[in-house]
Design goal:
Blueprint lengths: L2 H18 L2 E2 L29 E7 L7 E7 L7 E5 L7 E4 L1 E3 L2 E2 L2 E2 L2 E7 L7 E6 L6 E6 L10 E6 L6 H13 L3 E4 L15 H14 L4 E3 L19 H6 L15 E5 L2 E5 L11 H12 L7 E5 L16 H13 L4 E4 L5 E4 L2 E2 L13 E2 L5 E5 L20 E5 L3 E7 L4 E8 L9 E6 L12
Parallel strand pairs: 1-23, 12-13, 13-14, 16-17, 17-18, 18-22
Antiparallel strand pairs: 2-3, 3-9, 4-5, 4-10, 6-9, 7-8, 10-11, 12-24, 15-16, 19-22, 19-23, 20-21, 24-25, 25-26
Length: 457
């Protein structure tokens, strides 16, 4: 080969290497402090009227959305747990009777927490619902998700580690402006545990803050470390107490034994929620459930397989580095074998999207500890950038590892718009841009129907 040929080959190889290189964004958010909104902020306001229902939120009440569980709090007295619902606000001819609970946490006593499951819903139909009868009635609405099917389009919002700061408010406002049909929430809700004595009043303010979205579309909950609320120093030794009283999940419908891991089927997506802070070792209930659940996935009906967890398996930030490693070692080979499309995690307060890589061959002694490209592997997205009081995790390892496609130390949210059985469009939006500006995006092709090389976008 002549000199010109060698030069051309070198340019070609350099260009190919550059095309595959990951991006560590040079963008830097403004460095003002991240602070919780004051208790008198308008987003925390209590609705008017005696004993008015507040903190209203909904989530799926079964696996496919023909049932929806409505939750709310009455602050002054029990009232009742009845919900009426129907296709018109003037004619809510159906009704359901729920249940209520309360809990104490150190020096805090909750209001009356109501949960009521609305059944016999029709896929894709808009419903109005009301509660608070006998005192102050409030009315909301939602649209039941479409019937599971391979080409049912749907748009998910992807949010994690939200908290209740001014940045959190920006994240939620941007998501509302961009629109979505449901939220996949990857853990760490209120950050009440960052206050002295785990001030549970901050669970109440957070739920009032997000009501403007979660009362009108289902959010699917993942537990994070800030939901543990385990504090023996003040006598609180029951993990997840506030969360389990406030936020039900459809775990029984999914054959799970605990509310922290479960699955749902929405449109063309089969979504599996895992619990990073519950036991997952071999033969534990979560291990046994996931093994069976992956065998129940029907990619011909729900081609998009998405897994949620809190602690990421692939993370090139020095914050929380390798905290998810034991779960990765336990389950990664299962997810690759199942050809999972996307894994969503939080915990690290920055943004990162991976290429399709896996590390399933490593067995301690074979020197294969470096992740390798694998078209059967999921894309990993760390979306723990919702805006919480602990601030930005802007301490990325250098050099950027080969599995990392894009990373940035900013707050924001993402959306995943499933178009059909083969294609889904993904976008990440940073808060400091306009709501419609896109800071990172990618077309994903389905691992079952079109397993092409889609991780270089």
């Amino acid at each position: 080969m002549g000199a010109l040929g060698l030069l051309a080959l070198a340019v070609l190889l350099a260009t190919a290497a550059e095309a595959q290189a990951g991006v560590t964004s040079l963008y830097r958010r403004k460095m003002e402090a991240t602070a919780d909104m004051p208790l008198d902020a308008d987003v925390f306001r209590v609705p008017t009227g005696y004993n008015a229902p507040q903190q209203v939120h909904i989530t799926l009440g079964d696996q496919t959305g023909t049932a929806m569980t409505v939750s709310w709090v009455t602050p002054n007295e029990l009232g009742n747990s009845t919900v009426t619902y129907g296709r018109s606000p003037e004619k809510m001819e159906m009704s359901a009777e729920g249940r209520h609970t309360r809990y104490d946490y150190f020096n805090y006593t909750s209001g009356f927490i109501h949960h009521c499951t609305l059944k016999n819903l029709k896929h894709g139909v808009k419903y109005y619902y009301a509660m608070g009868f006998g005192h102050t009635v409030r009315t909301f609405w939602f649209t039941a998700p479409p019937k599971p099917g391979p080409d049912a389009p749907f748009k998910f919002g992807l949010i994690g580690d939200l908290g209740q700061t001014f940045d959190s408010n920006s994240t939620l406002s941007h998501y509302e402006a961009n629109g979505g049909d449901a939220v996949l929430f990857v853990g760490d809700l209120s950050y009440a545990d960052t206050y002295p004595l785990h001030d549970n009043n901050r669970w109440d303010t957070w739920a009032r803050f997000v009501e403007r979205s979660v009362a009108y579309q289902p959010w699917l909950w993942t537990t994070g470390n800030h939901e543990l609320d385990y504090e023996p120093k003040i006598g609180e030794t029951v993990p997840f107490k506030p969360f389990t009283h406030r936020y039900p999940t459809p775990y029984l419908a999914a054959g799970s034994t605990e509310p922290f891991w479960y699955s749902v089927k929405i449109a063309s997506a089969h979504i599996i929620v895992l619990a990073s802070y519950s036991s997952y070792g071999k033969y534990t209930p979560q291990w046994a459930w996931l093994k069976e659940e992956l065998g129940r996935v029907d990619r011909k009906t729900t081609p998009w397989l998405i897994v949620l967890m809190h602690s990421p398996w692939y993370n090139s930030n020095n914050y929380h580095y390798m905290e998810g490693e034991t779960m990765r070692v336990q389950f990664e080979s299962w997810l690759v074998e199942a050809k999972v499309d996307l894994v969503l995690a939080g915990h690290v307060h920055s943004y990162e999207r991976s290429r399709r890589f896996s590390n399933i061959e490593y067995d301690i002694i074979n020197n294969k500890a470096t992740p390798v490209h694998n078209l059967d592997a999921p894309v990993y997205v760390n979306i723990g950038d919702g805006g919480n009081i602990e601030g930005i995790a802007n301490n990325f390892t250098m050099p950027q590892p080969g599995y990392s496609a894009f990373r940035e130390g900013s707050f924001g949210h993402a959306t995943l718009e499933i178009k059909n059985r083969t294609h889904a469009y993904y976008e990440w939006h940073r808060n400091h841009d306009g709501a419609k500006a896109v800071a990172d995006s990618s077309w994903f092709t389905n691992r079952y129907w079109m397993p092409t090389h889609d991780d270089s976008n």
